[in-house]
Design a protein that fits this description.
The complex is a heterodimer. The N terminus and C terminus of chain A are likely disordered. The longest helix of chain A is centred in the N-terminal third of the chain and has 34 residues. In chain A, strand 3, helix 4 and strand 4 form a beta-alpha-beta unit. Chain A is of the alpha/beta class. Chain B is mainly α. Chain B contains five helices and no strands. Chain B is elongated, with a radius of gyration of 15 Å. Classes of the chains: A alpha/beta, B mainly alpha. At the A-B interface, helix 2 of A face helix 1, helix 2 and helix 3 of B.
Chain lengths: 743, 148
């Protein structure tokens, strides 16, 4: 009381509290007013309800004291009317009642009185009560004001309060209007804990309930983000933060806030995404991959299992970029990314917290395909049982790229080479694994591309020189260092050129690298595939050039390795090449060695048929050196047999060689195939061959392989003027020789 | 019932401020001295002449209420009866007319609880007591202003 008095004294020093005193009894009015004035109140008297209601606005009291029993509008009615007037809802009203009048006390509260006071002459008690009411009112006004401010602040922060009390079942939940708004409900809605939990998706709910159970059991602080689907279907992230409430040392419930942190989360996620994901494909970028790999390796080390890193490099991406443009290249990368992603259990998000849980399988969420840059991708497999496991994923990847990709209005084939490095076998850290997967990927390229290769120690130990050569050969195409030289095929009866064979040369600086020095390496590394593809294009181009300059209408034969025939896109490639230069399909002839053909007859034959259908002729190179069984020849759409140079060399030296050559010629005749001899170096060989029935020949006797311009000169200077020694050596004299060429 | 009229010349608004401690006030036998003392405390220095003003007000009020009592009884208006009893109860207590106050309290309760037995006799008693207090407070012959 003393405290209250002193603080009120301070208050009254400013302005005395203004009391409107209403009593119909003049005596009481006078006494009460006097007593209150004596105690520092400013008192305005009114003798009845009517008068009070009429004057109250003008008086603007801080407090109203009403006598309950009055004629006319009594105290109860006056109070009731006041409460319904704007601005008087919170006005402190004290009702004066008689002693032992319980009914009036009850009526007073129902009429909206703040408090009641039994009339007495103990004025100090009345004054004390009034001061208490004023203080409570002030506190209440301040509370209302700060509640309003809080509500507004919470609204702005998309925040709301809640209270939860333990009880039967799920207990009792109270949500503030702001909290309800956060949840997309109106303030009038009732939402119990059960309804709240139903807003959480089923998979998350179980975990959330377990966590809540644990928190509540320990009266621990609750702070978590929950993904919810609001009643209107919107997905939001709600941050929940609450502390336990205690009574007599026992936790009785929780008090806390909800906050809609979706926007903040979205922004954070966006930033995190930009920093960790490739903008084009949406896949994890190098940084993210490194982070994931390091985590995965930690886990693999701890849990003692294998992990694998697959380096995926697209095979002919540069071609696509160059010929179709960068936009198409980007489009293709996006599609490739989409397919690669489907090959692993790709996790967009990593459960950071969950990783800490020892022994869990959470490291699985690290699994992903990412883009290192350009056309290089990585698949991280955080746990694999063995290499075969990784190989399976690699095969899935290769398989997924087998289907053509439709970009820039056309179908593209974009295969990949995959290098596999295993933890811990091929490396214990990120750097080693990355390097060794790169080595393995290189080996895959070498093995003909469109394959996967696992790292092995010997891959890493290849000769430095060879690696260097290989890496330069890789760039030979882009640098335009490859050239084709052409060796004419001659019909010796007419002394005319009937076609050419294209032979690859590597112009490395000033040095012309002979085929023997790089073709085997190209074969070994698989570079032979892009090299051959280039050769087809280049031959088509040359056919066009010659067609313009001297009416060339024969075929240019290009040597292809069998692995190229296995590719489903070979036909498409050739078609594109000849179409690009406007020459007929027959301008390109393909040569495949007998050995290559026999190695993979089944796979090759389909391509041969399709090539034959579009008019591309097939020639069997090095014929006679391979299998003696020739049954396959009857089933394959072959146009020409090429007698191996070894038989030609020995013609006239060993009797076997002329026997073989005769047999080949006879066979060709029976099958309706052309036959051609290569490696013809002397007139004598020419003569024998001609005698045995072979009229088309190729060899140094006629010309060595020539650069295209030189070939043209050779035609003009040697063939047309008929100046060479081989011209006229056969032919006219023996017109009865059978014509072996097919019409 | 004998009506007490000690001093027909008494004036409650006398210059002495109506202090009960003054020369033997006429109402001393009617009004409770403790109650009067508490009234006086409200005006410690006596500058406002509070006691005199209160007694004058009470007198006016008493006259008015006794008139209302008579009218209510004639009309059988219990609400009015109750109001008179209620008002007179508290103001009488304030000035120290304790017997009148307690009579009024009893009557108020009976009316509220709709008890009629003995009410008429009490109302008569209230009338008489009211007249007694009035005559003690009023100057001049009390009978001249008594309600009939």
């Amino acid at each position: 009381m003393n405290d209250a008095m002193s603080s009120d004294d301070a208050q009254s020093a400013e302005a005395p509290p203004r009391v409107l005193l209403v009593d119909d009894d003049d005596v009481n009015l006078m006494l009460t007013a006097t007593a209150l004035r004596e105690r520092g109140f400013e008192v305005i008297e009114a003798t009845g309800g009517e008068s009070a209601l009429e004057r109250v606005d003008e008086i603007a009291p801080d407090l109203i004291v009403l006598d309950a029993m009055m004629p006319g509008i009594d105290g109860f009615e006056t109070c009731h009317l006041l409460r319904h007037r704007a601005g008087y809802a919170q006005m402190p009203v004290l009702m004066l009642t008689g002693l032992d009048d319980d009914a009036s006390i009850d009526r007073a509260y129902r009429a909206g009185a703040t408090d009641f006071f039994v009339k007495s002459t103990q004025w100090s008690l009345l004054a004390g009560r009034l001061r208490y009411m004023l203080r409570a009112s002030r506190t209440r006004v301040e509370l209302e004001r700060s509640k309003f401010k809080l509500a507004r602040a919470q609204d702005l922060a998309r925040m709301g309060s809640f209270d939860w009390r333990r009880g039967d079942g799920v207990g009792h939940l109270w949500l503030s209007a702001e909290a309800l708004r956060v949840l997309g409900r109106s303030p009038a809605d009732k939402v119990d804990l059960r309804a709240l939990l139903r807003m959480v998706g089923r998979p998350q709910r179980r975990g959330l309930m377990r966590m809540l159970g644990e928190v509540v059991a320990h009266n621990a602080v609750l702070a978590t983000d929950v993904s919810v689907v609001l009643f209107d279907g919107r997905q939001r992230i709600i941050h929940v933060e609450a502390e336990a409430e205690f009574e007599h040392g026992h936790g009785v419930g929780y008090t806390g806030v909800f906050q809609d942190v979706t926007d903040r989360r979205v922004a954070e996620d966006r930033i995190r995404h930009l920093a960790n994901f490739d903008a084009l494909t949406g896949l994890p970028n190098r940084r993210q991959l490194i982070w994931r790999t390091e985590r995965a390796l930690e886990q693999a080390r701890r849990l003692n299992h294998n992990a694998a890193l697959l380096l995926i490099d697209l095979d002919r991406f540069k071609n696509i970029n160059d010929t179709l443009g960068h936009a198409a290249g980007d489009e293709l990368l996006m599609e490739v990314a989409r397919r690669l992603r489907a090959c692993v259990r790709h996790s967009e998000q990593v459960m950071d917290g969950a990783l800490e849980a020892a022994g869990s399988r959470s490291h699985r969420t690290l699994e992903a395909v990412g883009r290192l840059g350009g056309d290089e991708f990585v698949a991280l497999l955080p746990e694999v049982s063995d290499e075969a496991d990784a190989q399976r994923v690699a095969n899935r990847i290769l398989e997924s790229l087998r289907e053509p990709i439709f970009v820039a209005g056309q179908e593209c084939f974009c295969t990949a080479s995959v290098g596999i490095a295993m933890f811990p076998r091929d490396g214990l850290n990120l750097v080693d694994l990355m390097r060794n997967s790169d080595v393995a990927m290189y080996a895959a390229k070498s093995a003909g591309r469109n394959v996967a290769a696992a790292y092995s120690a010997h891959l890493g130990g290849r000769g430095r020189e060879k690696i260097e050569l290989e890496s330069h050969l890789h760039k030979a195409i882009e640098r335009d260092e490859l050239v084709l030289h052409y060796q004419p095929k001659i019909d010796v009866r007419t002394a005319k050129m009937v076609g050419v064979e294209a032979l690859m040369r590597w112009q490395r600086g000033n040095v012309l690298v002979p085929p023997g020095d790089f073709i085997p390496l190209a074969e070994e590394t698989g570079l032979i595939v892009p090299l051959s593809e280039w050769a087809v294009r280049e031959a088509a181009r040359q056919a066009r050039v010659w067609q313009q300059s001297f009416g060339f209408s024969d075929s240019i034969a290009v040597n292809l390795p069998s692995r190229l025939f296995e590719r489903s896109d070979l036909v498409e490639n050739i078609h594109q090449s000849v179409s690009a230069y406007g020459v007929p399909h027959k301008a390109i002839q393909l040569e495949i060695t007998e050995n290559n053909l026999m190695k993979d007859l089944h796979n090759v034959s389909l391509s041969l048929h399709r090539l034959n259908e579009i008019g591309v002729e097939i020639s069997i190179d090095d014929f006679g050196t391979g299998y003696s069984s020739l049954a396959y020849l009857t089933t394959l759409p072959i146009s020409e047999l090429k007698i191996d140079r070894s038989f030609v060399r020995d013609l006239g030296i060993t009797p076997q060689s002329s026997a073989v050559v005769s047999a080949i010629i006879a066979l060709a005749r029976s099958l309706g195939l052309r036959v051609i001899a290569e490696g013809v170096e002397s007139l004598r060989q020419m003569e024998v061959l001609h005698r045995l029935g072979c009229v088309v020949m190729q060899g140094f006797l006629f010309s060595r392989p020539l650069p295209p311009d030189d070939l043209e000169s050779w035609l003009h200077q040697t063939v047309l003027p008929r100046k060479a020694p081989w011209i006229g050596a056969v032919g006219e004299a023996d017109g009865s020789l059978p014509r072996l060429e097919r019409a | 019932m004998p009506m007490t009229c000690r001093s027909p010349t008494f004036c409650p608004l006398a210059e002495d401020g109506g202090r009960p401690g003054g020369a033997a006030p006429a109402w001393g036998a009617v009004l409770d001295s403790g109650a009067l003392a508490r009234l006086a405390e409200l005006d410690p220095k006596g500058q406002g002449g509070l006691v005199a003003r209160v007694l004058a007000t009470y007198t006016q009020s008493l006259v008015k209420l006794l008139d209302q009592l008579a009218a209510a009884r004639t009309a059988g208006d219990t609400n009015a009866l109750r109001h008179v009893a209620h008002t007179l109860k508290s103001s009488s207590a304030s000035v120290g007319a304790l017997q009148l106050s307690s009579l009024c309290a009893d009557i108020e309760r009976k009316v509220r609880e709709q008890q009629t037995d003995g009410l008429e006799a009490q109302l008569d008693e209230m009338w008489r007591e009211g007249a007694r207090v009035l005559s003690a407070l009023r100057p001049g012959p009390a009978g001249s202003q008594r309600p009939s």
